[in-house]
TrEMBL record:
GO molecular function: ADP-dependent NAD(P)H-hydrate dehydratase activity; ATP binding; kinase activity; metal ion binding; NAD(P)HX epimerase activity
Assembly and binders: Homotetramer.
Pfam families (UniProt xref): Carb_kinase, YjeF_N
HAMAP family, per the entry: NADHX_dehydratase, NADHX_epimerase
Protein name per Swiss-Prot or TrEMBL: Bifunctional NAD(P)H-hydrate repair enzyme
Occurrences of domain YjeF N-terminal (ranges): 9-217
Lineage of the organism: Bacteria, Pseudomonadati, Bacteroidota, Flavobacteriia, Flavobacteriales
Function comment: Catalyzes the epimerization of the S- and R-forms of NAD(P)HX, a damaged form of NAD(P)H that is a result of enzymatic or heat-dependent hydration. This is a prerequisite for the S-specific NAD(P)H-hydrate dehydratase to allow the repair of both epimers of NAD(P)HX. Bifunctional enzyme that catalyzes the epimerization of the S- and R-forms of NAD(P)HX and the dehydration of the S-form of NAD(P)HX at the expense of ADP, which is converted to AMP. This allows the repair of both epimers of NAD(P)HX, a damaged form of NAD(P)H that is a result of enzymatic or heat-dependent hydration.
YjeF C-terminal domain mapped to chain residues: 227-500
Source organism of this protein record: Leeuwenhoekiella blandensis (strain CECT 7118 / CCUG 51940 / KCTC 22103 / MED217) (Flavobacterium sp. (strain MED217))
Record keyword Transferase present: yes
Catalytic reaction(s) noted: (6R)-NADPHX = (6S)-NADPHX; (6S)-NADPHX + ADP = AMP + phosphate + NADPH + H(+); (6R)-NADHX = (6S)-NADHX; (6S)-NADHX + ADP = AMP + phosphate + NADH + H(+)
PANTHER family in UniProt: ATP-DEPENDENT (S)-NAD(P)H-HYDRATE DEHYDRATASE, ATP-DEPENDENT (S)-NAD(P)H-HYDRATE DEHYDRATASE FAMILY MEMBER
CDD domains reported for this sequence: YXKO-related
């Protein structure tokens, strides 16, 4: 699903108006009508007290349209105009006129903190104060209203975006409405998936308001949401007359004394993703551990008897190499990695300690083959690209890093974002159970296993992240978030594949 920027939302509105030869107010009527129907279908006429807070722009106009429908359906409604400016949009004024035609109880105008009404947890609050156009903090008294809404405990519906949230920028030092649900128009917004702003959103759903299909199909967006429909298009089915060699040979350079679990998990990830052959390259003491725990995996070692990798040399020709889980950052290992990278031409997936070594030796970055996949968690990312001011600045820095080194950057988080060639691929699977040791090692193995099967690195990263999250989503049908372990991700990875083409259950 495409994620439109603020400017593209405005362009989509204009394209729709031109294609349908309608005034902009008709889109406001349409949007408000769909939002009302969503709430009305769930309320089923129950006389819930409704409080609608409207700004003085088009988001406020949506609220006035919603209010009119509530009045016409005989709900008990109180409408408030949050008067943070004397400038009203044209369509807001049209919506206000239409509302006045159906009710004698005109909206109450709020101009200061003293005007704010009492709120109850029994209320249904509809937040239409600010929309996607906000680019600076709201006035202090309006932020006080945001806080009051949040403290009320009422079921709160934000229309399009929570008031106070920027969709293309971070608005610092400002309160934001924390709704129960966001009814967002046509596409979700990038801010919904970023840590600083996404934490304010408990749930969201998209309302298709019929924006021009030609525009939506042709517009090129920087961000795309990856869900089941997109993942289905990436999957490569196996053929009848194939063999283990058809699906590649993944070499996992992983593990050291006390960290052999990372090697096991990354190898299991590659196997469960479908790699034809998997070989682990590790230290001497890791051989019995790997041979006894993973009979499907071959093992190679360095020529030293130490507890860390001191050289990386092998005589096989792997399809792809995953490197980093559990290798440590000793000086001997740093030297070994540098020497290996300088001569290597095999596609790479780098994670964990390999990333930490790169951060300590930035000159090694120049040795990476093009289209290498790097999978940092937030702290590893900061070591690579430097500190950032906010989440949008982080994305820009990650984008610049990806372009400089022609690499695929997988930014692991609640909604992992894969960055390449100026594009952001936002994952929509996974859950808090993934916040467990070894989860990232499994992801490294999955991506490596997909590249072994001839998925290109970008597709392998995007698809691998999706499958990793989906396996975790399936796993929590059998355990709580707290009970999810990294090994369980590999156990349910096959079911994540099956889910791609499973028919939805009938309600």
């Amino acid at each position: 699903m495409k994620i439109l920027s603020k400017d593209q939302v405005y362009q989509a509105d204009k394209a729709t108006e031109n294609a349908e030869n309608i005034p902009s107010y008709n889109l406001m009527e349409r949007a408000g009508g769909y939002a009302f129907q969503y709430m009305h279908q769930r309320l089923q006429g129950q006389p819930v007290p409704v409080k609608i807070f409207c700004g003085i722009g088009n988001n406020g106009g949506d609220g006035l349209v919603i209010a009119r429908y509530f009045v016409e359906h005989q709900y008990p409604v109180d409408v408030y105009v949050v008067n943070y400016s004397d400038n009203r949009s044209k369509d807001f004024l049209l919506a206000l006129d239409e509302l006045k035609k159906v009710t004698r109880k005109w909206p109450q105008v709020l101009k200061s903190e003293e005007d704010l009404p009492e709120l109850s947890r029994e209320d249904l609050i509809v937040d239409c104060i600010f929309g996607i156009g906000i680019n600076r903090p709201a006035p202090d008294w309006v932020q006080t209203l945001f806080v009051a809404i949040n403290k009320s405990g009422a079921y709160t519906v934000s229309i399009d975006v929570p008031s106070g949230m920027g969709i293309d920028l971070t608005i610092k030092d400002s309160a934001i409405v924390t709704p129960t649900i966001v009814l967002t128009f046509q596409t979700p917004k990038l801010a919904f998936f970023l840590p600083e702003s996404g934490k304010y959103i408990n749930n969201w759903t998209v309302l298709d308001i019929g924006l021009d299909r030609d525009f939506l199909n042709s517009v090129e967006t920087q961000a795309q949401l990856i869900d089941k429909a997109e993942a289905q298009q990436m999957y490569k089915p196996r053929t009848k007359f194939s063999h283990k060699g058809t699906y590649g040979h993944a070499l996992m350079i992983a593990g050291s004394y006390g960290k052999m679990g990372a090697a096991i998990l990354s190898c299991k990830g590659a196997l469960s993703a479908g790699a034809g052959l998997v070989t682990a390259y590790t230290t001497q003491q890791g051989v019995p551990i790997l041979q006894s725990s993973l009979p499907e995996v071959m093992v190679m070692v360095d020529d030293f008897m130490g507890n860390v990798l001191e050289e990386i040399e092998f005589d096989l020709k792997p399809t792809v190499i995953g490197i980093g889980p559990g290798i440590g950052t000793s000086q001997k290992t740093q030297n070994a990695l540098g020497e290996f990278l300088e001569d290597n031409e095999v596609p790479l997936v780098l994670d964990a300690d390999a990333l930490n070594i790169l951060s300590k030796n930035k000159q090694f970055l120049d040795y990476l083959p093009k289209y290498s996949v790097l999978t940092p968690h937030p702290k590893e990312l900061e070591r690579l690209i430097g500190a950032w001011e906010d989440d949008f600045d982080k994305l820009k820095k990650a984008e610049a890093f990806s372009k400089k080194y022609t690499c695929v950057l997988v930014l692991k988080d609640a909604h992992t974002i894969t960055v390449f060639d100026g594009k952001y691929y936002v994952n929509n699977t996974g859950n808090p159970g993934l916040a467990t040791g070894g989860s990232g090692d499994v992801l490294t193995g999955i991506i490596t296993g997909l590249i072994a099967q001839n998925y290109d690195p970008l597709t392998a990263a995007i698809f691998g992240v999706y499958l990793h999250g989906k396996a975790a989503d399936i796993a929590i049908n059998h355990t709580a978030y707290e009970g999810l372990t990294a090994s369980m991700i590999t156990e349910f990875l096959g079911q994540a594949y099956l889910d791609l083409f499973a028919k939805p259950e009938k309600e």
